[in-house]
Specification:
- The protein is built from nine helices and ten strands.
- It is of the alpha/beta class.
- It has a single domain, classed as Rossmann fold.
- The termini are close together.
- It comes from Parascaris univalens (Nematode worm).
- Pfam families: COesterase.
- This is Carboxylesterase type B domain-containing protein.
- Keywords: Signal.
Length: 332
C-alpha cells in the first residue's frame, strides 16, 4: 500500500499511449465496450477510455444526483477520452481543452494478465480544489509501468466540479449538496458491479486520492452511507482542508447574484434560485466562477459540506463515532 502511494506522485500531466490494436471487447451488463492495447514492449496494457458510469447530468438533470447509465446497442468505442468536467481557472498549469457537462466517464488501465484471474483495483480521485483538473490528464506510461503492468487495474473516474458539483443553496432540498461526491459513489458502484469483466476483484479495491481527492477518500471512508463493500483500503496523499459547513454557499450565491438569479440584500426562495441557475448557459456560470475564484481563491471556494445524507457532521465528530468502516488506511 505504501508503494502505491509513493508511485502515484509522478503520474500527473504527461503523454498519451498510442493504441497498437483495437480488438479488445468486453461485455458489461450495460453493453459491449471496445478497448485497445498500448504501452511499451515490456509493459503492454489494456486501455478502456471514456466509459460512462452515469447518464449525462445535462438539461433538467443539472444539479441532480447521477442516474444509472442506460444500456446501449452495438459496441461502445472506448478508445478515446471524453470531455473533462466543466473547469476553468488560472490556478493550474494544465487547463482542460475539451470541457462539457456531459463528463461522467471513467478510464481503465489493466494488465492483460488480469484476464486470467482477479487483479487488485486502484480507484484514483484527482485533485484540483474541487473546481479544476480532471480524469483525462495523467501520464499513461507511468500508469502502465507502475500499476497496470503489475497485475493492478487502475481506474480514474470523473466527477462534477465547482458549482456543477458542489452547489449549496438552502438545505439541499432543491439541489442536493455534494453532487460531485455522489458522482464518485456512482463510479464506485459501477466498479463494484462491472470491474470483474475487466479482470478486477471487486473485493480488493483501494481508493486513492491526492489533495482534494485525498479529502474525498477520507470523507467516503467516514461516511456511514457508503456501502462497506465498495472499497477495502484507502490512501490519502496531501489532504486539503476543504470540508466545513457552508463552504460552498457564499460562492454559489455570489454567482447567483452575478447571473441575475438572486438580488443582493433581498430575500430569495431556494427553489427559484436553483431553477434559474439550472437553465443558465454552462459557460456563463463557469465564466463568473473563474472570475471569483481567480481573485478570491482562499475566501470563495467549492467543496463538500455536512449534509443530512452522506456526512451529517464535521470530520472530528465523524471520527469519534463507533461505526467507522474497518478498512486499511494510509494518510500521507
Amino acid at each position: 500500500i505504501i508503494l502505491l502511494a509513493v508511485a502515484m506522485i509522478t503520474i500527473i500531466m504527461q503523454p498519451l499511449i498510442t493504441c497498437l490494436s483495437v480488438d479488445i471487447i468486453v461485455n458489461t451488463s450495460k453493453g459491449k465496450i471496445r478497448g485497445c492495447i498500448g504501452g511499451r514492449a515490456k509493459s503492454r496494457i489494456n486501455i478502456f477510455k471514456g466509459i460512462p458510469f452515469a447518464r449525462p447530468p445535462i438539461g433538467s438533470s443539472r444539479f441532480k444526483k447521477p442516474l444509472s447509465v442506460q444500456q446501449w446497442d452495438g459496441i461502445y468505442d472506448g478508445t478515446y477520452y471524453r470531455s473533462a468536467c466543466m473547469s476553468n481557472t488560472a490556478y493550474t498549469s494544465s487547463p482542460q481543452k475539451n470541457i462539457s457537462e456531459d463528463c461522467l466517464y471513467l478510464n481503465i488501465f489493466a494488465d492483460p494478465k488480469c484476464a486470467e484471474g482477479e487483479c487488485a483495483v486502484v480507484v484514483y480521485i484527482h485533485g484540483g480544489s474541487f473546481y479544476f483538473q480532471s480524469a483525462v490528464m495523467f501520464d499513461e506510461d507511468s500508469i502502465a509501468e507502475k500499476y497496470a503492468s503489475r497485475r493492478i487495474i487502475f481506474v480514474i473516474p470523473a466527477y462534477r466540479l465547482g458549482i456543477f458539483g458542489f452547489i449549496s443553496i438552502g438545505d439541499g432540498t432543491f439541489a442536493p449538496k455534494n453532487l460531485g461526491i455522489h458522482d464518485l459513489i456512482a463510479a464506485l458502484r459501477w466498479v463494484h458491479t462491472e470491474i470483474s469483466t475487466f479482470g478486477g476483484n471487486p473485493n480488493k479495491v483501494t481508493l486513492m486520492g491526492h489533495s482534494c481527492g485525498a479529502t474525498t477518500v477520507q470523507l467516503l471512508t467516514l461516511s456511514p452511507n457508503v456501502p462497506d463493500n465498495f472499497f477495502q483500503q484507502g490512501i490519502s496523499m496531501s489532504s486539503a482542508d476543504l470540508y466545513r459547513r457552508n463552504l460552498s454557499h457564499p460562492i454559489t450565491m455570489e454567482i447567483a447574484y452575478r447571473v441575475s438569479c438572486a438580488r443582493r440584500g433581498l430575500p430569495y426562495k431556494s427553489e427559484a434560485v436553483v431553477e434559474c441557475l439550472r437553465w443558465k448557459p454552462a459557460d456563463e456560470l463557469l465564466y463568473h466562477q473563474k472570475a471569483l475564484t481567480d481573485v478570491d481563491y482562499f475566501d470563495l471556494m467549492f467543496g463538500p459540506e455536512p449534509d443530512e445524507e452522506l456526512f451529517a457532521a464535521e470530520v472530528p465528530i465523524l471520527l469519534s463515532r463507533q461505526n467507522v468502516r474497518d478498512v486499511g488506511y494510509l494518510l500521507e
